[in-house]
Amino acid sequence: MKDIQKFLLSSQPPKARSSVERKKHLQKLKIIQSLYFQGPQTNTQICEEFNISSPTSIRLLNQLMDQNWVKKEGQGESAGGRKPDLYRLDKDMFYVMGIQLERSRLKIAIFDNHNKKVADFKDLFELETGDGLVDHIFEEANKLIETSGIDLDKLLGIGISMPGLVSSKEGRNFTYFIKEEESESLEDILERKFNKPIFILNDAKSACVAESNFGMATNRDNVLVISMDWGIGLGVIIDGKVYEGSSGFAGEFGHIPLVDDGQLCHCGKRGCLETVASGLALTRMAQEGIKAGESTSLNLLSEEDLKNLQPEKIIEAANMGDQFSINILSKVGINLGKGLAILIQLFNPELIILEGKFAKASQFITIPIQQSINTYCMAQLREKTKISLSNLGDDSVLLGSVATVMENIFGKQISLINNS
Ligand SMILES: [Zn+2]
Question: Is the pTM for the entire model greater than 0.85?
């Protein structure tokens, strides 16, 4: 077995004999971290990133190659002359599991150390009911590990994203799973069951972490990531860092008051943004319209599909040209744009990334959002803000969970060395 797992999961600082050795250990750790998050790199890129000389970098890379943790493969761009070698992490060294809980679906996937998905599982799931959820997640995750055939020792940790008020620091969800964690935190329960490091976080934050590591927010300083799913989530990147707030709850954008005497929200308040701009609002509008006898292709759905109407079905109908679906998406977009106008005035972001189920509605959602922003935002601010659809696809939240696990694992090792 390769000892990369020990290298990354050690609970003790390295037994280095001298400060020079400690420094070398730290540099190797940081090179592995950089190759993990940014992919293959040339020696020149590594020298620039860590401000080290070429001989030093080559020496470290050679040592990492001797350990079979890094290998030379392929070539990078050259500014003229011979193309430089690319260094990358060796394959199959470690794996990370991402678990995504939605209101009505459970998604589990295992990613390798090149961030490629090697196994996944999807199932319908009721988050609201609460009973036995932890056991169910544990069972399905174990089944996936077994069928994937990966060595359990190589699984470094598990990241779990979920809706609700999630405190990553305390490892608790204050909206769901309340019954199950009367004395023990959700994170502790899962850690005890899985016997692996577990990190839980809010799903919108997870999408934001994914965008900042692998998506359009990479190397950008001031970005807002809007998750448009059943609820509306917000992740805020300020000065290149994902902003947490004092209790880790920053970004509860869906529950800002937007409508006077509006509909009752599932949070218990009235007139929240989510009551007029979310997957919940969209399906409610569709069901109301169908009841009122609107002519729409949604009428062709089975009774079962209509009862458990998913936002995806409405978005599909809009993309097929269904006028009613286009209209209600437009209403949602106008309302969401109003909310975004407030955010633009507050944060002056360079980019707003829209992700989640609604991203598939492309112009049917972006045009009304843009119209609303044009109406409600000061020109000087809105002109500086680009609105883009995420390019990470359906796995963005899972990728964010996985990135969070690795950020924490690297962060812990780096602080162990720095404090030793
Ligand atoms: Zn609310």
Answer: yes
Residue 311 CA to ligand 1 center (angstroms) comes to: 19
Spell out the residues 6+ positions from residue 86 whose beta carbon is closer than 8 angstroms to its own: 40, 41, 42, 72, 73, 74, 75, 76
| 209 to 45, 82, 88, 214, 350: CA distances (angstroms) | 23, 36, 22, 8, 17
Tell how far the Cα of 340 is from the centroid of ligand 1, in angstroms. Answer: 16
* The pLDDT value given to residue 182: 63
CATH topology of domain 95-207+397-417: Nucleotidyltransferase; domain 5 (3.30.420)
3-state secondary structure of 171: coil
Mean pLDDT across 16-24: 84
Domain 220-391, second-level architecture: 2-Layer Sandwich (3.30)
Q: Ligand 1 mean position to 31 CA, how many Å?
A: 44
Check: CB of residue 254 under 8 Å from CB of residue 272: yes
How far, in Å, is the centroid of ligand 1 from the Cα of 277? 11
**Residue 193 to residue 175: CA distance in whole angstroms:** 22
> Average pLDDT in the 293-314 region?
92
Fold: same for 95-207+397-417 and 220-391: yes
Domain 3-7+16-90 has CATH 3.30.160.390: no
pLDDT in tens, 335-393: 999 999 999 999 999 999 999 999 999 999 999 999 999 999 999 888 889 999 999 98
Residue 368 phi, psi (nearest 5)? -60, -35
For position 179, what pLDDT does the model report?
61
Cα 202 to averaged position of ligand 1 atoms, centre (Å): 16
Residue 107: both structure tokens together: 């998604």
